[in-house]
Amino acid sequence: MDDSFTPSPVPASSSAPVSVPAGVPAPTMPAICPECHLPVRPEFYFCPNCGKRLSEPPLATDLGSQLWLYVFSAILPVICYLAVSYWQGIKYARSSDPAARRIGWIAIAIISISTIITFWLAAVWINGLLQSATSSLGSVGNLGF
Questions:
Q1: Contact 103/61 with Cβ under 8 angstroms?
Q2: How many Å apart are CA 51 and CA 58, to the nearest integer?
Q3: What is the DSSP string of 82-123?
Q4: Residue 13 domain-assigned?
Q5: What is the pLDDT confidence band of residue 124, given thresholds at 50, 70 and 90?
Q6: Are 72 and 118 contained in the same domain?
Q7: Same domain? 41 vs 96
Q8: Is there a single domain that holds both residue 76 and residue 52?
């Protein structure tokens, strides 16, 4: 009796669809990294081999992230935004996620109000300095000579 088993050859491509039992998730085909050409899972945002960005990770919409963005928007007027370029409000406002988009527009409103207040306070401060300088110069002219 021969105990060796030789499997029968399986055709390379089968035209019959593979049936998956109900309740079992269908297998997902791995994607290919465009940089290193190795297979990666479709849910990966970065290639684990070369680090290439495969897709944009979703923006955080939890309470801590919202508070950070809102506080950052309140204390960072537009001028500082242009200098720092770290503010994420525009990215949130352009997101396809409705919750992230709402967070972005709230942050834009906050930074706009903050900028208006900052310019107003700067104008009041400069006006005060000019008035004090003018009154100082006026008192120098009245030395009593």
A1: yes
A2: 17
A3: HHH----HHHHHT-SSHHHHHHHHHHHHHHHHHHHHHHHHHH
A4: no
A5: very high
A6: yes
A7: no
A8: no
pLDDT at 85: 64
- Pull the structure tokens for residue 118: 């900052």
How many domains, in total, are found in the chain? 2
Indicate if 114 and 85 belong to the same structural domain.
Answer: yes
The tokens describing 129, both together, are 């300095």
- Regarding whether 75 and 52 lie in a shared domain, the answer is no
The three-state (H, E, C) secondary structure of 51-89, written as one string: CCECCCCCCCCCHHHHHHHHHHHHHCCHHHHHHHCCCCH
C-alpha span between 134 and 118 (Å, rounded): 24
In this structure, what token pair is assigned to residue 71?
């506080």
Instruction: Give the whole-angstrom CA distance, residue 26 versus residue 21.
Output: 9
Domain region containing 118: 63-132
Q: What pLDDT does residue 81 have?
A: 62
Q: How many whole angstroms separate alpha carbon 92 and alpha carbon 57?
A: 12
